[in-house]
Structure formats: C-alpha cells, structure tokens
C-alpha cells in the first residue's frame, strides 16, 4: 500500500484545499471509544485518510520551507525501530541502538569535515539541536555555579549572544528558555547579501566586554532559512578563536552541503565551529523527526546536562545519551539516518545534494530570462523572486512595491491552495518574494517548468483581480 502511494504521488495534487471543519467532520467528533475496533479496518481507513487529505512533501512539486521528501529506507527504518522500541536514553537499555547512534554521529561529523573526536546527540530537529547548543555554551561560559545558582547567581555577569536578524526564530526561544531574555541578543548587521558583518561583530564583542558583560556565544548561519545565505565563516572562526567565544553554526538547512566537493570555502569552514546543528530530516532526507547537534568537545554536553540520580545505575564507561541533552527516554531516531547513510554513501549524498543545487541554478536562469519574473537571490537550493506584470517592470517606487507585495502574497496563497505546486515565501529587502527551496530528490526540470507556469498563471489572475477591484 505504501509503495503504491509513493509511486502514484506525482499524478495527484500536492495539497488539497480543505478547511478544518471538513476534516473534523471526516474523522468524526464522537467521544473516546469505549470498545475497540478491527485492526485491519482501522489501518486501512487511517491510510486512506492520510493518503487523501494530506499535504505531500514527497510530491515532486513541493518546495515549501525546508521540508524534504522522505527516503523510503528511512520510512522502513522508523517502522523497524519502533517495533524493537529501544530506549536510547541509556546504553544498558539499548546496546546496539546506542552504538548505531554513536556511529551515526561520527559519520555525520565526517560528512561535513568535523574533526575526529567530535561527539553529539540526535534530537527532534533543528530548533532543539540549536537550543541544546546554546544551553551547553551557557554552561561553558559561566565561571560561577550556574547549574546551582542560575544566570543571576553570585558572581554572575550578563551573558551575551551574537547573531544577525537573519537567524532562525529558534534563537528567540533559546534565550527565553535559557533565562537570558531577548535583550541578551546583540544583533549584528548584515551586508547586502544578508551575511554577517564581521567587523561589526568584533566591535560588539569588544564593546560588551568593556562594559563588564560576558560574550557567551556567536551564532553563525550556514544557509539562512529565508535566502540560504552563508555567513562569512572563516573570518568568524578566526574572531571566535581570538576572543575565546563559543562559535555555534546553525547548519540545519545548508550544513550538509559542505560535503559537495566544490562547496564554497565559507561553507566548508563550518567544520571548525565549536558546535554545529544539522538536520538529517532536511537535506539528508530522513523522515521527520531527526536533528543532530555535533560538538567538538562532547564533554561540554555532559557538563551541561548530566545528573546521576540514585535510581539510575548506568555506568560511566559507556555512552548514556540522557547525559547529553534534555531527553531522558529517547527513541531510536538514528536508525533511519544510519540506514540512508549506508544505502547511498557519501557519493550518493554528494550527488543528491548537488542535483538540488544544480536544479535551483537552472530555475534561477529561467526566472531571470522570464519577462514577468524578477530574480532576487539564489544560494544553495533556494531561489527568491517575484511576479511582476510587464507594465510594472521598470517602475521603481514605493507604491509599486506595495502593490507587488500584495500581489505576490495573494499569488502565493492561491498557488498553495491550487495543489499544482507548493512554494513558501521570504521577505528580501522589504519585498515579498516567492521562495522555492529544493530539498526533493523527486524534482526534475519539468517540475520546475510547471512551477513557473503555475506561478505566472496565478500572478496574471491576481493582477487582473486586483486591478478590477481597485477600478470598482
Ligand atoms: C536555518 C534553520 N535553522 C533552524 C531551523 C529549525 O529546524 P526544525 O524545523 O527542524 O526545528 C530551520 C528550519 O527550517 C532552519 O532553516
């Protein structure tokens, strides 16, 4: 049934435009059933609910957010893992699963070039990987007893975090849960390509130190969520080494592209970070959920998270993953990632990721050549652009920009509802942009051609409707 579902996906819509009420009616609003139901009937009806009423990110014309199509071997990996149901919190509870997770962490580090000895932990996704890194850096930066007395304990200094406004929203959640508050973030300006200004970063660190504050963490991004921009990592690495500030790289989207031999030097330098978040459930095609935090000195995680209550006797000579992060009981996420790494190997990923980058380059050339589209940016596998009616092409004023923002916003909404293709949006220099991100091994040039046709068709229709509305 699953194989058939996957094979037939391209023939159907990416998405069905259904309302919450309709879906609630479909699943019924009865109370918790008192008695059980037949298993075969249940599974069949659950499958048909999902196959007919989902948004399909394995569809070749799905390009939203950074959400990938799942590797079929990963689907089976999850099935196998949950059947055995290993609790990968402690080695004693999950001997072979823990060893497979450790090997997966080592292989992920190797894939992106991090040094031998790098450790880490698998988590639910990018947000949690990044948040765990921030908590470890907070512990490492404090020379008072932070775990006992908290961020305001005796001898504490205000802790500061550095990032640009392009950083993903995880950072706001992280400083919140870490008790630092949003004011602890020192926002560093960017250049015209949305990359961190390292001169401004150096000044900010110096300035805060002079005030008696403690620079705790620089967050650089290797593939921003909006445009795929890569911060100038070599210069940031140098500065962090010189100043002794922990460098964390959010490579949740772009990090694994460092394995592509001709990846830019700015990206490859992520291997020199103190910690790196990458997301196997993005560009390594693991089914949700699988995020990874890699840490150059894995003991930093134990320093931040390990406690040894009397009811656990797990021994310190083995790896007990509950010591490395927030979770206690943990599922066997590593299996799906490990299986896919073994199935295609490094060469397979170099090809799969390289193909997506080449497709996005091809898309950008098509957009540039189209007289109703305006290209903004292209990095890694994200292209941003907007629809511009021919008669507005040469207009450069605030009213036109405001009109084009409304037009493209409505066009995005219509195209998403149409089920013909699915892209999400970005805002680039105040302009609303359409933003296909290709992390999809099913996509071909023909799908991108169809994407352009769909967007232009909806663009023309929305333009007509808006003009008719304003004429009324
Ligand atoms: C750069 C970046 N960081 C973090 C995240 C959050 O990842 P997740 O959705 O897996 O929590 C994303 C998601 O797109 C991202 O692109």
Feature tags:
Aspartate Aminotransferase, domain 1; seven-stranded mixed sheet; 2 domains; Aspartate Aminotransferase, domain 2; three-stranded mixed sheet; 45% helix; 472 residues; binds pyridoxal-5'-phosphate
Number of domains: 2
Strand line-up across the major sheet: 2-8-7-6-5-3-4
Our count of helices gives 16
CATH-defined topology of the largest domain: Aspartate Aminotransferase, domain 2
List the uncertain runs.
none
The CATH superfamily of the largest domain turns out to be Type I PLP-dependent aspartate aminotransferase-like (Major domain)
> Strand portion, in percent?
5-15%
Ligand names: pyridoxal-5'-phosphate
